[in-house]
Amino acid sequence: MSALRIGGAVVLVAVAVLGALLLADVRGWRSAIAQGDAVYAVTPGKAVWTPSTVLGGGAARVLGTQDDVALRRALQIYAVAAATPRRLDTAVQRQTLRAQAQSRLAAAARGSHASQADTLLGILAFGQAAGADTALADFTNAVRADPSNTAAKFDLELLLRLSAAQGSRPGAGTGHSFGRGGRRGAGGGAQGSGY
């Protein structure tokens, strides 16, 4: 047998072994995502979507799971933050979780799930003091990313109606923006309403 034939056989065996390992990792990713989703449905804080792999991140790149897993982890922290009771003794924990959720959702908003992530960012922003301007921008970004996102459209319209009913205009300035208490000067109300 010539050296060329032996070399070719070795390459074929190596390719076959790598292919089998990649296939095992692909199956591992599919199983981990399905199992993680099942756990998330029952106990969001305990869900894990990362399998043990032989080839590292190769299968994740082949499947394109990075954006999906990033969104799931952001949703996980969002759910845990939302489930944390609003009490004095949990205030720091709740604020930390909300900050982590915002950070992860902002990262997910740069991927293929931008609309869903931006919608949740808007909800988080609206729940904070003076966050209506940010929420308005997030809901607008969500609708732009996916015009069929009815939740984002609903939230955007609701926020605009709330601001109109309050006589405030998001983005009108520090004394006039929705969510800021205190006095309003001239121009703080709806257009045409005088002082």
Radius of gyration: 24 Å
Mean pLDDT: 82
**Low-pLDDT residue spans:** 172-188
CATH architecture of the largest domain: Alpha Horseshoe
Number of domains: 2
Give the terminus-to-terminus CA distance.
97 Å
Kindly report the name of the CATH homologous superfamily of the largest domain. Answer: Tetratricopeptide repeat domain
Strand content: under 5%
- The gross shape turns out to be elongated
SSE run: HHHHHHH
Helix content: 55-70%
Global structural class: mainly alpha
Task: Report the CATH C-level class of the largest domain.
Answer: Mainly Alpha
CATH topology of the largest domain: Serine Threonine Protein Phosphatase 5, Tetratricopeptide repeat
What would you note in describing this structure?
This protein is an all-alpha fold and 195 residues long. The chain folds into 2 domains: 64 residues, no CATH class; 107 residues, Alpha Horseshoe (Serine Threonine Protein Phosphatase 5, Tetratricopeptide repeat), CATH 1.25.40. Helix 4 packs antiparallel against helix 5 and helix 6 runs antiparallel to helix 7. It is elongated and about 85 Å long. The protein starts with a helix and ends in a 30-residue tail after the last helix. About 9% of the residues have low confidence.
Walk me through the topology.
Blueprint: H1 3-42, H2 58-63, H3 66-83, H4 91-108, H5 114-126, H6 132-145, H7 150-165
